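Standup notes
- DV: blocked on the single-chain target, sequence here:
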Amino acid sequence: MFKRLTLRNKIFLISTGLILLALVLIWIFVKPIYQQTIVNERTTIVSQLQEYALKRADVSIRNWQQATTYLSNQIIETPDAAQDLITKTINLTPGLMRVYIGEDNSPDPVAITRGDASTLDFDQIEYDWVPSTMDSQILVSWYDMEEIDVLFFATQRFIQIGQTVFRIRLLFDASRISEELLNIPLGGNYQVSVLQNNSQVILGSDSLNYPADLLSSDGSSQFRKLSLAGNEWYVLTSAFQTIPVWHVISVDDAFILQPVTNMIRYTLIAAGSIFLLMIFFSWYISKRINSPVKAIITDVENMQDLDFEKEIRPVELPEFRIMRETLESIRLKLQRYKEMNVERIILEEWKNKYLMTYTEDMLGFLDESHQFSFTNRTLTDFLTELGVSIENGKPELILEHPEIQTGEPARSEYNNDPYKIYITNHEIQHFKEGQPEFYDYQQVSIEDRNGKEHAAMILIHDKTEERLLDIKRNDMINIIVHELKNPVAGIKGLSELILESENPDPVQYRNLVQEISNAGERMNALVNRFLDVQKLELGRKELVYTSFNFVELYEDVISILNPQLMKNNIKIDMLKTGYGFTMNAERDLIFDAVQNLISNAIKYGDPGRTMEVDIKNTGDLLRFSITDFGYGISLEDQKKVFEKFFRVKSNAKSARVAGTGLGLAYVKEIVNQHKGEIKLESNEEIGSRFTIDIPIKPESES
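- DV (later): unblocked, structure below
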């Protein structure tokens, strides 16, 4: 049947099938994801608007409570000036309409009223007092005087003057707060209410019967989807910071999911359009998708450059409208902050953040939930290496990590009323690939009188190099003691043998004294060589640069080592490349370096060899290379051969050669002092080839 259809019908059927398949896939896969995204985005906007309104309300309420505390304290200090203080407070405190003061049980307290509020009937106000979250000594209450559309916020505090307890009550006009709390600029169908802890409605709509468990017991904000009054509602609850009251925003499910409905509608329209234009206008569809993204990216780049004046341009596609509106809202806020001189604060924060980010020590800050709110570059790398999530990371995940060993903590305490600062120090070890790394771990915490932690910082200092240096220093001392043990034991034994002999044979006596002298020479050579290396490493030896011919220096070395060469039947083929081998350097040190390399080449190989020496002038460098065709050095030993007291033991013949293990360390330090470079190449074919490059002139002359 399909084969009999015309090409146009085949294209029609295939296109129809693809479109239907696409619609099914969109309905099954895309719609749920998009719906969840829309819910997250819109509830985030609602949450941001709610947070903004709560912050503004908390600021006013906090100021009013502080005014209550301040007025109470002033009256306690100067009770005779109470009326003047109250009048001054009314004039200076925005929104304050009336102040009552009287004895606790007095039915007729003294009342002082702001002039523009003298016509209001304050006696009809009914109070429902609850303790303030901010200050337990202050009681607060709301009252809505509906007939004149005024919302009152009242604070009350008891003070004692002498033996008498007085009650101070302040009434504030909270109409502006009510307007901002109830009129959230959302659009669509929503309801706003202000509830007490018992879910009693103080302000706003009470048409929705909220469940008793709507408000969390721990005061945390919540987002829930509830069935109320026959409809589905998204309900966001957040607590005030200053009073035990909750702000509740209920948004109709249909309003939240409106973009999803629009998406389905537009998808059906697009499906019909694609059916007609999918072959000829696919490029146009791509352009319509890419253009809004590019426009938004271009506008966001302006914000990145702290330019908040340019509007986020409107986009045509509905999928990007919410993004554009969100970015535009952020732009307007940033513009307002910039006008309030927040740019300077941001720049200072950036500078401090950069300084903390790029410090070598690991640095992290913790929030009130004891999770990392900031980690610098090195701590981020360390947490990643341990496999600890940065978003949910806590210091305990470091200290309790299976790759971490922790020492006994040392804790110190400092009082800085009303806070206490605790400093906890640990020494921790991190075993990385079986090798230990050593760190000093310090945690600084700030806690209030109730033991609640408000902020904390951790500082981790890597002291692996210092610890390894201590270990290396101890190993060096042990090696020196070990190397000196045999000569000292020999001297002691030979000395005892001489002392025990009553009539020693003169020849035997001379031989024993000569052995003692030889042992002393070995000890002296070991100590002098070690001291030479130490002086160079510590920079205590001042280099005296002179001009000399390197080839002549090489020939002087050969004349000294010639007996060893003849004894081992070793020949040297020398090749010179270039002209003028005169250089400026510390001649004695260069002499020692060349002599050590040639002497090692003689010792670490079989007799009867022919070694190769290459002397080359490259213009800036004098290169000396010797190839010994000897025993060679394993790859593992090549990594350590320039360390002090290291002896090659991977080769049995090399291990039998006597030496201090300081020669190559001495050569390397000489080369380093001359700002040169030493290289080692070793294999079975060439044995070992050592190459040193020394600048012909010091850097100062260059």
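- Follow-up: The longest strand covers residues 419-432.
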